[in-house]
Amino acid sequence: MGCMAPTPSISSFFISPSQAHCYRHTFRFRSTNDVNLTLLPTRTQFNYPPRVQQHSTTPSPPPLEEKKSFAVATGELFLGIASRLINSRESTPVVMFENSNSNSTVMYDEKERIGAVMKDEIQSDVIWEQRVKDIEAERSRRVVTTPGFSFSAAGLLFPYHLGVAHFLIQNGYIKETTPLAGSSAGAIVCAVVASGASMEEALIATKILAEDCRKGGTAFRLGAVLRDILQKFLPDDVHIRSNGRVRVAVTQLLWRPRGLLVDQFDSKEDLINAVFTSSFIPGYLAPKPATMFRNRLCIDGGLTLFMPPTSAAQTVRVCAFPAGRMGLQGIGISPDCNPENASSPRQLLNWALEPAEDVILDRLFEFGYLDAAVWAKENPVEKLVQDDTTAPAFGNSIVQ
């Protein structure tokens, strides 16, 4: 069960920014065993600046158009295209990728070609694919009846995802074997969780990245900064920890963009390349329209797989944006869990595309933690999380 809110049109997500708000409370992380969730501070505890009533006999001039940075303008254009694809109800057939009879000049290893095409369990119009290599690896693994967690594309809002993950790990929802999946920022968080690092450490690394971008700029250079942070932060065996557990979504560019899931990584560098590709907004992460990943031309995974499915029988989906306003359904954890959220969608979008100040990053982390706590109140861990150690193997669980 997820946190739901009214579902207006997708256009209502892009509204004018609201005024900044200041917190009244301090926040400490504790287990739900120690916390009465009904007493948790809510997002509505803000100090609002007083409004001054002005009376004038002359009509007010039209509002000035908001000035946007290049990074924000580029990101908004990409997100606008993504939102159209996400909410599209028309799915076209997807042909199998390169095979031995192909006339293409690019040759692929037999196990690197696409071996399965599947439809998303919630969004039936979303089609995703797996390599033969990944299918063979998945067949040898066991069925996971405990829910996995999928983290949405979120731009620079991934402190929100870190806060959600912190709560889920702290309270036993995410364990060492819990399946994970993510697009863009969500893929980064999945890699961090699989690495075994603490979410507080990841938040510190996020602040380092944000500070670098605030000083040197975001557009065209975020990709290089992100790579450097991931190289330093992730352990050398992160690909081993992630294999079979973490699914990273990328968008492959053919005559029509289509989703590709990767859950087998050959090295730490291969995993970082997958995460980098999953986050690649054209003209934003680097000054080029696309990036190469395993001999395929690819861009941001959020374009086709905003919240990719995990390998578990059930997937709890985490969205850093108000899911109701985006017209998304089947979402477990999102700002809709606290519907009186004082941060406007426009403000969230700005923070997603330009690095916010550290105090805002801390606030996003808290928001994620609080939203997960509200969700947990309706989904107690003892009822949701099961022991999968005796579960049978996958067998033919892949749709051919």
TrEMBL record:
Where does this chain carry the motif GXSXG?
Answer: 182-186
Q: What is its EC number?
A: 3.1.1.-
Recorded protein name is Patatin
Where does the motif DGA/G lie?
A: 300-302
Q: What does this protein do?
A: Lipolytic acyl hydrolase (LAH).
Keyword annotations of the record: Hydrolase, Lipid degradation, Lipid metabolism
Which GO biological process annotations does it have? Answer: lipid catabolic process
User: PROSITE patterns annotated for this entry?
Assistant: PNPLA (PS51635)
Q: What does the entry's domain section say?
A: The nitrogen atoms of the two glycine residues in the GGXR motif define the oxyanion hole, and stabilize the oxyanion that forms during the nucleophilic attack by the catalytic serine during substrate cleavage.
Q: Which family does it belong to?
A: Belongs to the patatin family.
Domain named PNPLA is located at: 149-314
Per UniProt, what is one Pfam family of this protein? Patatin
**Molecular function terms, GO-annotated:** hydrolase activity
Active site, UniProt feature:
184, 300
The answer on whether this UniProt entry bears the keyword Secreted reads no
Q: What is the enzyme's class at the highest EC level?
A: hydrolase
The superkingdom of the source organism is Eukaryota
